[in-house]
Write a structure and sequence with these properties.
The chain is α+β, with helices and mostly antiparallel strands. The protein is 38% helix and 14% strand.
């Protein structure tokens, strides 16, 4: 998220052409910034339009990546960034598979979209990710139900870099008003919960970096 000179009001990454829509989004950006929990606004391909300071703080230790930064495209970050598992707890089962399901639904609706097609090509280039998408994902949906892919209301683990939060959970809440939805955007807020403390006392959570673009929870199909 960018800021205007003086660092006062956040500026959307993309601005609608219609003046009334542009004014609405700019004011909405100020609302998002005022929220104490990580919050983001995305379009149908999960390109990030707005984030707030709490979102930036959550992902502050994530290393650089040419195409999968959390503030650029959140779907790509979840699927392809090697540091995703250092922030998104139980990354593969609790974040990656639901996002793959959401992506599959988006492809069904907007398969002609060039941005979605580019993500689909990147999935196809990784054999394990492709196996997860083509074979593991349908099995996962049959097991947990299609509603598990919906972000609104889901409780998912996080590993926050701020020790005041540490290993915790968040509830994903869809806060999209009708006007924002009409512009083609969705707003999601990660409502943080109290940190989960082990019985032996506070301990910094173990954070692992996974190989770029690879899943392990869904094996390749048998020949």
């Amino acid at each position: 998220m960018a800021f205007q000179s003086g660092g006062q009001r956040p500026v959307p990454r993309s601005v609608p052409a219609r003046p009334e829509a542009r004014d609405y989004l700019q004011d909405y950006a100020a609302l998002v910034q005022a929220v104490p929990f990580p919050s983001l606004v995305v379009d149908h391909r999960w390109d990030v339009v707005l984030t707030n300071s709490a979102f930036t703080s959550l992902f502050r230790d994530v290393g650089p990546h040419p195409t999968a930064m959390p503030g650029e495209n959140f779907l790509r970050f979840v699927l392809f960034h090697p540091d995703a598992g250092t922030v998104l707890g139980e990354h593969e089962s609790r974040w990656c598979l639901p996002m793959l399901a959401h992506f599959a639904a988006a492809v069904e609706r907007c398969g002609h979209d060039h941005g979605l097609q580019a993500i689909r090509r990147d999935i196809a280039e990784d054999p394990i990710m492709e196996a997860a998408y083509r074979h593991g994902l349908p099995h996962w949906i049959r097991t947990v139900g299609e509603s598990a892919a919906e972000p609104d209301g889901a409780v998912r683990p996080l590993l926050h870099p701020d020790p005041r939060w540490g290993a915790t959970d968040c509830r994903v809440i869809d806060e999209t008003p009708a006007t924002l939805r009409d512009l083609g955007y969705t707003r999601l807020t990660l409502v943080l919960r109290e940190a989960r403390r082990p019985a032996s006392g506070p301990r910094r959570p173990r954070r692992s970096r996974r190989p770029a673009g690879h899943l392990t929870v869904v094996p390749a199909p048998e020949a």
